[in-house]
Amino acid sequence: MQINADNSLQLSGELELHLMQGMQIHGTGLLSAPCMVYPNVTLYHSSLGGHSYISTQAEVGYTDIGNYTSIASGFVIGLGHPMHLLTASPVAWRPFMPNSRFDGQTTYRYERTVIGSDVWIGANVIVKAGVTIGDGCVVGAGSVVTRSIAPFTVAAGNPCRPIRPRFTSEIQGRIEHIRWYDHDWRDETVDWSSTDGALDSMEAALTQGFGRPFRRIRYEADNTNLNLTSP
Hints:
This protein is an alpha/beta fold. It is 15% helix and 30% strand. Helix 2 (169-178) runs parallel beside helix 3 (195-207).
């Protein structure tokens, strides 16, 4: 289904799902509020976390994306085709053109891709289906990701390779312990001016009982309808 101006305004105002006019959504998945999907994005059978966004000219399928993740324009998940069959053409496992049913079709499932929380993916990145990009990763612009990337790694290139850790082991340990990205920190005072200051603020708030999970909304969409329900 292609989101029009009325759809976009209603979803943004009522549910904090900022699905921009001109993006397309298909299949089933989960959206966490608030999140944002820009125009000219196709999102299908995927999930998008809170305070995460996908910029323009992107194609995202069969992918689970965490919270606070930033995806620049031109992002593509390469779903791939089976290589163990006689042909890599979809005719072997699904109809994809009008009147193109082939008797004796087999079954084939696309691999799911996982992108963690607080991930930053630069412009024009291609990701092979089935890989995992761990929490806290940074992937440089123009990279082609063919293998999984460990959490909190800065990586780039074609093929994409690790360059360095994003944080010291001490900072990474603190982050992994509190998993700050599991919470919606709006309206909570956090010292965002430094990594240590932010973690100090968050650790204090969590010790005092702070906890604000994201609202998750299940979607089911076809060519003309979008249905939203609580999971």
